């Protein structure tokens, strides 16, 4: 059975430390589009919040970035097309060589949040030990088996669990909201309307099964 870990790593040990520190109101999320080119690690980054034009200029001058361009623009977000330098590409490939598959990646202020998949928990420990020895600390926030009881415990489907977890990480529930339904849909690979409905249904299931006493949901 595979295992998924949610990790935090300082931006200074990963990427874009200076742009993120200079623009703390801006959040970036790696687009889920797959790529098979060795030069195309994290080729697309969605940015939301703050002065996105200024943030793009900051990326262009950042260490680890060779080139950056605007791939897509919406009313409240910009997708940047980034070509990383050899050192950053090597870091990503080193993570893969130590059995980590990158499921999601996002960053704000001074840290990146990474969701990594491993074949087993022993690989997680080996992964952490290796990068601690190289001076890069990947701090695990949570570790779980995706097909295990974590989602089933409260009656959530796998899709509902994924949607709720993605919504929390993206700031969808924050006040003010840091991610729109459309942006959440981008993360999940579905429409904004479908993402909103999935979150509402999952929230109802979670509250009914985790918070309400027997009979309360029926008004008894």
From TrEMBL:
Residues 156-201 form the HTH bat-type domain. Signal peptide: none annotated. Residues 7-143 form the Bacterioopsin transcriptional activator GAF and HTH associated domain. Pfam families: BAT, HTH_10. Keywords: Transcription, Transcription regulation. InterPro entries: BAT_GAF/HTH-assoc, HTH_bacterioopsin. Transmembrane segments: none annotated. This is Helix-turn-helix domain-containing protein. It comes from Halosimplex pelagicum.
